[in-house]
Amino acid sequence: MKTVLAICLAACLFSTLQGEETKAPVPPELQALAESLVSAIKTNDTAAISACWHTPEVMAKSKATEAQAEAAIATKEIDVAKETEKELKRRVKDMEYSLHRIGEVRALITKCFGDLAPLKLAELELDDDSEATEAEPAYDNVELHLTAADGTMLTLEIDDAVRIEGSWKFKGRVEDKFSIELSDP
């Protein structure tokens, strides 16, 4: 009986230890990018917010390069121009949506917590992107954990962060989910 109990306890401890995920290390350039985004959000600087994302043109160029590489090894023909145009349209929509979403987040934070000036980045959390390459390192599910003036934790999520042509920037949309974790009274 003691042996069965010891085995069960060991299995529980092992599964608990296995369940803990290690956080991806944050590159300093990405940390600086997140800080820039928070500053731009606080000042409502649309140009500075947009500058935190790869431009639709850069993303379309990257997609064209990827489509050309696929076309070179594929047995079927790939319309590189069409793929590039689709990517450009997708990224323009993503940027418009992200700017709109950040405006809504700003309004909500201002309504609930007042002045945005004391807002600061507490932590940047990243998930490794399993499809990332050495040429284009990337992270999935970027979470910016922010702290309001009263200590309330806020979480803003962005689809991805990717380094293209040596520059880390965000890719995709600001997620619909915005979390507010109330502080203890």
Any overview of this molecule?
This protein is an alpha+beta fold and 185 residues long. Helices cover 49% and strands 25% of the residues. The protein has five helices and four strands. It has a four-stranded antiparallel sheet. α4 (56-73) runs antiparallel to α5 (80-113). The longest helix is centred in the middle third of the chain and has 34 residues, at 80-113. Mean pLDDT is 86; it is low at 1-20.
Query: What are the secondary-structure elements, in order, as H or E?
Result: HHHHHEEEE
Average per-residue pLDDT, rounded, comes to 86
Q: What's the helical proportion of residues?
A: 40-55%
Strand order of the largest sheet: 1-2-3-4
Q: Number of DSSP helices?
A: 5
- The residue ranges in which pLDDT falls below 50 over 5 or more consecutive positions are 1-20
The largest β sheet comes out as:
4 strands, antiparallel
Query: Distance between termini?
Result: 47 Å
Total strands: 4
The radius of gyration is 21 Å
Shape descriptor: elongated
Sheet/helix structural class: alpha+beta
Q: What portion of residues belong to β-strands? A: 15-25%
